[in-house]
Design brief:
Layout (H helix, E strand, L loop, with lengths): L11 H8 L3 E8 L5 E9 L4 E11 L2 H9 L10 H20 L7 E12 L4 E5 L2 H8 L3 E3 L3 H5 L9 H10 L6 E6 L2 E7 L12 E8 L2 H11 L8 H4 L5 H7 L21 H4 L5 H20 L9 E4 L6 H10 L4 E3 L10 H14 L7 H4 L9 E3 L5
Parallel strand pairs: 1-4, 4-6, 7-10, 10-11
Antiparallel strand pairs: 1-2, 2-3, 4-5, 6-12, 7-8, 8-9
Helix pairs in contact: 2-3, 6-13, 7-11, 9-11, 11-12
Bound molecules: adenosine-5'-triphosphate and the ligand CC(=O)N[C@H]1[C@@H]2OC[C@@H](O2)[C@@H](O)[C@@H]1O[C@H](C)C(=O)O.
The site of the ligand CC(=O)N[C@H]1[C@@H]2OC[C@@H](O2)[C@@H](O)[C@@H]1O[C@H](C)C(=O)O has 16 residues, from β4 and β8.
GO molecular function: kinase activity
Pfam families: AnmK
InterPro entries: Anhydro_N_Ac-Mur_kinase, ATPase_NBD
Length: 387
Amino acid sequence: MLKAIDKTRADGALRARLQQGPVWALGCMSGTSLDGVDAALIETDGDVIAGFGPTVFRPYSAAQRKTLRRALGKWQDAPEIPAAAQIVETVHHAAIAELMQTDPTPELLGFHGQTFAHDPRGRGTHQAGDGQALSQALSLPVVWDFRSADVGLGGEGAPLAPFFHHACARFIGADAPLVFLNLGGVGNVTWVDPRIERPDAVGACLAFDTGPANAPLDDLIQARRDAARDEGGELAASGVADQAMVDRFLTHPYFHRMPPKSLDRDDFPDLPGLVSDLSDADALRSLTACAAAAVARGLEHCPSPPKQVLVTGGGRHNQALMGELRARLSVPVRDIDATGLNGDMLEAQAFAYLAVRVARGMTTSAPGTTGVAAPVGGGQVSIPKAP
Ligand SMILES: Nc1ncnc2c1ncn2[C@@H]1O[C@H](COP(=O)(O)OP(=O)(O)OP(=O)(O)O)[C@@H](O)[C@H]1O
Ligand SMILES: CC(=O)N[C@H]1[C@@H]2OC[C@@H](O2)[C@@H](O)[C@@H]1O[C@H](C)C(=O)O
């Protein structure tokens, strides 16, 4: 491990509690689609998932989303950030407060915050939201700033859900390599070999962002029809994909890079222009085909053929996208909910799981998941001060 976690940052009481076995942890995620805050409880020792608890989703209002959108691509010092960060914190606080009224009571919080900019090989990575302030406001230990240590050590800082995907594979009893495909604003995959016990062992996980997924679809329908999304992918399903446009999209240098690799939400600024002459339905269908083609291209990197692809994230509700994936992949493509996992909450659960790993001094990423030189534990632990 490159950077030993300073275990003294998790205070004595928390450390002692974590040594005794699984704890309930709360995780929160506000993803690149800017739809809202997911919050979920899981019980874990940071290795094995012992159980899943209640979940909450708090959407951003249309006005809040506008403010958040203005902050996209912006760094900590930009004038757009304070108002956007305030929204992120307020909506998280509301979601967490709601969940803390239910049983069981969490013993720590994993707080991802909102990514506004991600340029791991340039300016770094920027997640807004103050974990220290949240810890004080909630009187709860908070693990946050999950990505910067990995980036500081040469990694991509993303994706970070892979170690949780590895735990999920074992939770559902998988006995052969499989792929978790998250279709959020951006798409990302984790190829997992569940026969290897540790997620940070060589050959256990290969992960990377596949390409744009739902974000270009949302942006197009927002711009053309003032709607937040194409519900169920219905409009896209009525269109026809422009295959020549998809082929042009696939010439982007990102697809020639070897994984691990990661993306910012708007790393394909030319994409809307490629469909500007198409009807709404054909444009949506073409962007849908691009998202699926990017996944298919990405899966060519799998170390061995996966037995199945389990689809998580909001994009699995888009039937046009699921259809495009099934047409392009030669392995079964399943909605992850069919396994008993919750595809709407997997990322929030992932940050609860990672919070426990950080507080216990365990690793959160590895060369196969972020390209970091050696397994590393990221994240800061904030302990509320006594009043
Ligand atoms: N019923 C639906 N029909 C069509 N699209 C949907 C539906 N539900 C969610 N989506 C799409 O899924 C996306 C939200 O999914 P999710 O919450 O997994 O993304 P995210 O976590 O914000 O993004 P990321 O994983 O990139 O950080 C939105 O872009 C939304 O348009
Ligand atoms: C920098 C950043 O926030 N990246 C997100 C984004 O959304 C999907 C994809 O791009 C993934 O790399 C990551 O999120 C998930 C939760 C992850 O870290 O695994």
